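== Folding the chain ==

***
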Amino acid sequence: MGFQERLSALVNAVEAQLAARPGVQTDWAVLTGPPGSGKSTLLEALGALGHRVQTEAARAIIEQALACGQSLEDLTRDTRSLAMTILERNELGLAQLPTREHIVLDRSLGDVLAFAFVDGVDCQALVAPCSRFRFRIALLCESIPDARDATTYHSPPEIARLAVACERVYRALGAEVVRIPAIAGGRQAAVAERLALARDALIKSG
């Protein structure tokens, strides 16, 4: 099967899981999207305006490994193990959050599933745990041209596939998906415009 067919099969598996065992509905919002999409900058800006935010588990794991002398090549040699480690860290973090509070997450369980899928991991064992929670809204940050991220290990075609996978997985998890486009121009003005779009989407979503 090709990419779209395999992704449709994954989405169908998520929907079947939720039909059999509905996930916990939350008031959480998720910043999602491919690497180099400016999520972390947007999260920081939202936090500065008083939104409760939670930083990305996967980034913390990768940065810690790099600081300990591992290379990205070593870290991503076993993508299944990496996916399970990221899943476990996400589960620990989410278990401490009140489900009825408005919190903005930098990536979450849908990203674990989307990244594992694009990385070629057999996702069968990931579907149930990644479907445990349902999200109010997912802000899909589009890739910023020429953006560099020291934790990125994906090629440009993989980054494009990640954008598609993140969107479809979060829709399957019941989230309204709102695109936050890349903005041309100076960095400060671009961040301000994206921040305004994100805040407007969060307010409209309730």
Observations:
- The CA atoms of residues 183 and 190 lie 5 Å apart.
